[in-house]
UniProtKB/TrEMBL annotation:
<keyword id="KW-0479">Metal-binding</keyword>
<dbReference type="InterPro" id="IPR002355">
    <property type="entry name" value="Cu_oxidase_Cu_BS"/>
</dbReference>
<keyword id="KW-0186">Copper</keyword>
<dbReference type="Pfam" id="PF07732">
    <property type="entry name" value="Cu-oxidase_3"/>
</dbReference>
<dbReference type="GO" id="GO:0005507">
    <property type="term" value="F:copper ion binding"/>
</dbReference>
<dbReference type="Pfam" id="PF00394">
    <property type="entry name" value="Cu-oxidase"/>
</dbReference>
<keyword id="KW-0812">Transmembrane</keyword>
<keyword id="KW-0560">Oxidoreductase</keyword>
<dbReference type="InterPro" id="IPR045087">
    <property type="entry name" value="Cu-oxidase_fam"/>
</dbReference>
<protein>
    <submittedName>
        <fullName>Multicopper oxidase</fullName>
    </submittedName>
</protein>
<dbReference type="GO" id="GO:0016491">
    <property type="term" value="F:oxidoreductase activity"/>
</dbReference>
<feature type="signal peptide">
    <location>
        <begin position="1"/>
        <end position="22"/>
    </location>
</feature>
<dbReference type="InterPro" id="IPR011707">
    <property type="entry name" value="Cu-oxidase-like_N"/>
</dbReference>
<feature type="transmembrane region" description="Helical">
    <location>
        <begin position="525"/>
        <end position="543"/>
    </location>
</feature>
<keyword id="KW-1133">Transmembrane helix</keyword>
<dbReference type="InterPro" id="IPR008972">
    <property type="entry name" value="Cupredoxin"/>
</dbReference>
<keyword id="KW-0472">Membrane</keyword>
């Protein structure tokens, strides 16, 4: 090929590349129309505002809970008195079975019942059904986010859904498994009725209980040492009489690497013995304890249960693929490899941000002492950070730490299955508290503030002073120009709503629209093609002119030798 043609091709390639680059233009910004979003109220409209008020039901005094989605006060009354001692009207408002919580026999004569029977079932959330094409019953941990889960639930008298026309879970069937509260010396029976399709058990982790064994039943809940798994349709009684108070833990110990991770875990609290100590035996929604024990009221103004849990999407998805227990057992027990797992959903009291703002706010006033009980039932360590406050660790794993050695911190490391009791004081001295505000509390591992990798999400909540609480029960962030509405849309967690779309009037960080020129991938491909052509042309020129190049090289070497030979000696 004549050299002039080669040069022409080279010039043409360079000019074409320049023309393409010149034709590229920045895309238009496309703003997602708020009207197109599946927006929902920030407070659950199904929950009555009257539930937030201080009240008395069947002689049970229930403290006010100013958050926007408090627990059903009827649940609290039934948990304190027992379902065998409340009125039929109260019982009907709970949805609990009449034998869900039985309290009898004041054995020590101090004015409160000492024989407690608690009946739990095992329920599935967001699972596959043979009779329905979707998931049932559904439980959203965040807008549109429905991981498959299993829970211990109090025995109910109704359907698994809230009504015949809905697939939403009965409010009693929810993450996390309920907090159980009993008193030192109580004779406690936890009756597990296995309403699930898999075998299960209960292990009373940290709770003082005997080791016993028999043909089938034990008390430690461990199939490898003391008992046979409780098969579907079976019933087993776990009995203990605790001698030491503390914040403990209960969970399934059958195939623990999957069953615990699926949600079969809850907090169990053994309270100090006091006269006339009627306890809130179940805290079904977790969060605010609206009827604290006598011992807690002696030293604290409020009490909160904070249950941190994390789930792996790959594991949760298994029960959403099949309705055949054999296939689920195969995938969970043989194909699922926990050593390759990643946690994707981070929850506080069963919910992820922004739903944590509904239930799990720690609402305080100045100069208060707040008792916080924390449980980490996830598979990784967490690091809970309290903005604006330093709290004191009073107990590790249910055991009181020496008062002279108790540690004040603002980051609290918690290993899997670990429990911490914290004393949070709101005195504004620059150490205990920095003053009133809406102070974030979150897991300082940054993935802990995400939901399936999307921030803002995860187990975030706030320590909110009442002066910063809106009448709705949510923080007054809208007064500062902060809009939380976008987080209450499923599109946000589906990654269809730009994170910073509304930071300025012209949406400078909004979603880029269709591109008028070539995209980045096309540009890269074109550039690689031009480079390849140039390299090919160079190789061709070397091959075509190899004789001329050879002669030129020989001539150059000869001239070089001649120049050296002419040098004087």
């Amino acid at each position: 090929m004549p050299i002039r043609i080669v040069i022409a091709l080279l010039i043409f390639s360079l000019l074409s590349s320049a023309a393409v680059q010149a034709s590229l233009k920045l895309p238009e910004t496309v703003k997602v129309d708020p009207a197109a979003l599946t927006a929902e109220p920030m407070c659950d409209p199904k929950i009555s505002p009257a539930w937030r008020e201080a009240q008395e039901i069947d002689g049970v005094k229930i403290a006010a809970s100013p958050g926007c989605s408090p627990d059903n006060p009827a649940w609290i009354a039934a948990a304190v008195k027992g379902t065998n001692h409340v009125s039929m009207d109260t019982l009907m408002k709970t949805g609990l079975s009449p034998d869900a919580i039985i309290k009898t026999d004041d054995l020590d004569g101090d004015g409160d019942p000492d024989r407690i029977i608690i009946k739990l079932e095992i329920m599935e959330l967001n699972g596959k059904s043979p009779d329905f094409p979707g998931l049932v019953p559904t439980f959203d941990i965040a807008p549109g986010v429905q991981p498959g889960a299993w829970v211990f639930a109090p025995k109910t008298s109704g359907m698994s859904t809230e009504n015949f026309e809905s697939v939403r879970a009965n409010p009693l069937l929810r993450l996390p498994s309920p907090v159980i509260r009993v008193e030192v010396g109580d004779i406690v029976q936890i009756v597990l009725e296995n309403t699930h399709y898999f075998p299960h058990s209960i292990h009373l982790h940290g709770v003082d209980h005997p080791f016993s064994h028999g043909d089938h039943a034990g008390q430690d809940g461990v199939p490898q040492t003391s008992e046979v798994e409780l098969m579907p349709g079976g019933r087993r009684v776990y009995e203990f009489q605790a001698r030491q108070p503390g914040t403990m833990f209960y969970h399934c110990h059958v195939q623990t690497h999957t069953h615990l991770a699926m949600g079969l875990a809850g907090m169990i609290v053994v309270e100090e013995n006091r006269p006339n100590n009627w306890l809130q035996t179940l805290n079904i929604g977790a969060g605010h304890v609206r009827h604290p024990s006598v011992a807690v009221r002696e030293n604290f103004d409020q009490e909160y249960d904070l249950h941190y849990h994390a789930m792996d999407k790959e594991l949760s998805d298994i029960i959403q693929k099949y309705n055949d227990p054999r296939l689920i057992a195969r995938d969970m027990n043989q194909r699922y490899d926990i050593t390759d797992s990643t946690e994707d959903y981070y929850t506080l009291n069963g919910l992820s941000y922004p739903y944590t703002l509904r239930e799990s706010l720690i609402i305080v006033e100045p100069d208060q002492k707040i008792k916080l009980r924390l449980l980490n039932s996830g598979g990784e360590s967490i690091a809970v950070h309290t903005h604006g406050h330093h709290a004191t660790i009073t107990h590790y794993d249910g055991v009181e730490h020496n008062p002279v050695a108790q540690i004040m911190r603002d980051v609290f490391d918690m290993a899997p299955a670990q429990r911490l009791d914290l004393k949070l004081e709101t005195v504004n001295d620059g150490k205990h508290s920095y003053g009133e505000g809406d102070w974030l509390i979150h897991d300082h591992r940054e993935k802990g503030i995400t939901t399936n990798g999307m921030a803002e999400g995860g187990s975030m909540s706030s320590i909110v002073y009442k002066s910063y609480l809106h009448d709705s029960g949510l923080p007054k962030v809208n007064h500062f120009g902060i809009d939380l509405n976008k987080f209450f849309t499923k599109e946000y967690y589906e990654r269809r709503l730009p994170v910073w779309q509304d930071l300025d009037e012209w949406s400078s960080l909004g979603s880029p629209g269709g591109q008028t020129g070539l995209g980045a991938q096309e540009q890269t491909s074109l550039l690689n093609g031009v480079i390849g052509l140039l390299i090919g042309l160079v190789i061709y020129l070397i091959f075509a002119k190899r004789e001329q190049i050879k002669q030129s090289a020989i001539a150059a070497v000869s001239r070089l030798k001649g120049a050296k030979g002419s040098n004087p000696k």
